[in-house]
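Q: What would this chain look like folded?
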Amino acid sequence: MLRDTSKVASHRLVVENKVLKKKRAIYFYALDSVGETSRPQACIKSSKTTTTTLTATVNKLWIERVNALFVSSWLREYGEKITWAKHKLMGLEFDTKRLVIKHYGERANFSNSSLPIELPKAATGKSIKAVFQSKDIVPVLNGLADIDVIGNISLALSADTLTLTFKTELADYKIFVPTCNAAGKRNSTDFEAYGG
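A: My prediction, written as structure tokens:
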């Protein structure tokens, strides 16, 4: 498909992947120049019915620890191979005291595990195991380590979504990361469908 050269971007942002040492430009267009299905981000259903299985309160230091003990080394080792079948999925196993991240395997049959990463304060709820697409969960965990978070970060995990709630000097944030099945199909239970 040929690019529509009649549309001119209003802004351009150049981002650099320090792991892969590659630069990429992201172009922004005025909303009236793009199609309806290109406009929205994924939206959470207002009538969200999923019950949270486990909730935990962590601090920025804990996120940095997860990044140092697992995420950054995973990115160095497998970041360029994130689309390979053995690296597409990642499992998070939470209990009330710790997190273990499982990886390296196909169809959620993981052969490698991180060391247990102790939670700073006991979580409430039941132990839960959830599978995520690596391209969904890794950027969130990696990016949070570089954000100036004010106060604590709330984690809420259900069978459908991991929700991270935090605050910065500029805004309050909620990040929803969908779980997926063993084939890598994202769970859409908590998200509204849109577009064609």
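Residues 178 and 188 are 7 Å apart (CA to CA).
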